[in-house]
Amino acid sequence: MTFAVAARCAGVLAAALASLGTGAVQAAEPLKALSSNGVRAALEVLAPQCERSVGREVAFEYGTSTSIRQRIVGGEAVDVLFVVKDSLVDLTPQHLDPSSIQPLGRAGIGVGIRAGARRYDIGSSAAIRQALLAAKSVTYAQDGASRTHIERMFAQLGIADEMKAKTLLEQGSVRAAAKVVAGEAELLLTLVSEILPVEGMQLLGPLPAEFQSYISFAGFVTSGSKEPAAARALLACIAAPANTATFTAKGIER
Question: DSSP states of 192-223 as a string?
Fold first, then answer.
């Protein structure tokens, strides 16, 4: 074999190996999942076992359902969504596979405080009114699913103006919770499932029954998923009835 022929053979072999290597990398690319902060704590527990079950890694990103909706409408390539159910139900099959929906559970709204901080009685309408007026400041997510329910409660209690003056709105419940842990705000109003997992925070309790509202979460496979079978398998694993105890422990009722 001449040197030139040998060189050409080596080049062909190198190209073939490179092609195989690229294919292997592509096959190993993780599924992409976007999740609401409201179910983040449960997913962080369930994700490892479901990755093993499906045989694929999953890259999770977390945010508000409002921000996730904007990303999907904007055309971002995603495989699976775990979000507030009502935030996406009006989207077309161009964005979501309507047959893929899997209910995950629901979360009520609660009040969180910094660990060791003053505890308030919030067990009745009169008690929570007094607590909200006594608190130096409160915080909640300006784009969170619970905001409308929280502000409706303020109005029903007749303290909307007083609360406006002491409310610190934040982008997302994670930042709002951080303000309370840091001592920059006294009370956090958000979903119970966004309070329980936060280190340095305690759940004071749920809102009284007359003000309580529940936010339902669901999982969807996007229409743009390049691997819908794997995405469906992941979603089915996460939503499985066997995971009810995990969801419940993280503040999600099923």
Answer: GGGTTT-TTEEEEEEPPGGG--EEEEEEEEBT
Look at residues 36, 30, 173 and name the one whose alpha carbon lies nearest to residue 104.
Answer: 36
Within this chain, do residues 99 and 116 fall inside the same structural domain, yes or no?
A: no
Residue 39 and residue 95 share a domain: yes
Q: What CATH number does residue 231 fall under?
A: 3.40.190.10
pTM for the whole thing? 0.84
Q: Which string of b and e fits 27-58 if b means at least 16 CB within 10 Å?
A: eeeebbbbbbbbbbbbbeebbeebbeebebeb
Q: Quick check: is 114 in a domain?
A: yes
Domain identity same for 100 and 174? no
- Tell me the C-alpha distance between 112 and 251, whole Å: 13
Asked if 195 contacts 203 with a C-beta cutoff of 8 angstroms, the reply is yes
pLDDT in tens, 215-242: 999 999 999 999 999 999 999 999 999 9
